Amino acid sequence: MSEPQKIKVITDEEEESGPESSGSAEPPSMANGQHEGDSAGEGQPSIGQRLKNVQAQLDSKEKEYKETFDRLLRTTAEFENYKKRTSREMDEFRKYANQSLLKEMLSVVDHIELAIQAAGAPSGADTGMLEGLNLTLKEFLRILDKFNVRPIEAIGQPFNPQMHEAIMQEANDRLPENTVVREMQKGYTINERLLRPSLVVVAAAPSSLHPNSSANAC
After folding, report:
1. Average pLDDT over residues 15-34
2. Are 93 and 188 in contact (CB under 8 A)?
3. pLDDT tens digits, residue range 39-89?
4. pTM, to two decimals
5. Has residue 12 got a pLDDT over 70?
6. End-to-end Cα distance, the chain
7. C-alpha angle with apex 166: 97 to 210, nearest 5 degrees?
8. From CA 183, how far away is CA 118, in angstroms rounded?
């Protein structure tokens, strides 16, 4: 025999309330999704806050760039000054590297000039020797001039303590006082710097000298 079939009888009240109760229920998945979205939205920064963060980063990078650029300018300026200073030092070295040697050569010039003075004395001298001495002196002066070594003009000039060294005073009423009257040893400059001072005799008023002498040592 077949099993008896069960038949559910729906009353009028159940039929009226059924669709409403079933339609009003919200699926659990949808409710949970909405709550998760709300919580996620609350954790993210707003657009305004994100703009402020970006602006702060830009300001920081701009400050870093300015500091780096300033350091670069200072370094460049220091390097340029270093190059200029080094160039000046090299120029000075080249100008005065031979100063000691050239100064020693001046004594040779002095001796040649003394020899020419002695050869030109009234007692007479060999003309050929005198000519040879003059040529030798001329050649020495040419070499010195090549290295910018030039004699100091002293006779008739006012005494200059930076270029002259007075070794004697001489009574002279024709020249102003402290004027160079004679030159005992010629002075020289190298590149307009003093290489050797001129040893000179300067004029002095006769009344200022010792009454028993026409010349006084300085």
Report:
1. 51
2. no
3. 545 567 788 888 888 888 888 889 999 999 999 999 999 999 999 999 988
4. 0.60
5. no
6. 165
7. 170
8. 17
pLDDT in tens, 128-163: 788 888 999 999 999 999 999 999 999 999 999 999
Asked if 198 contacts 163 with a C-beta cutoff of 8 angstroms, the reply is yes
| Spatial separation of the C-alpha atoms in residues 39 and 87, rounded to whole Å | 72
What does the alpha-carbon distance between residue 203 and residue 198 come to, in Å, rounded to a whole number? 15
Domains annotated for the chain, with CATH where assigned, are 149-218 (2.30.22.10)
- Work out the number of other CB atoms within 10 angstroms of the CB of residue 204: 24
Does residue 64 contact residue 157 with C-beta atoms inside 8 Å?
Answer: no
DSSP codes of every residue in 86-140: HHHHHHHHHHHTTHHHHHHHHHHHHHHHHHHHHHTSTT---HHHHHHHHHHHHHH
d(Cα 158, Cα 164) in Å, to the nearest integer? Answer: 10
- Distance, CA of 27 to CA of 194 (rounded, Å): 109
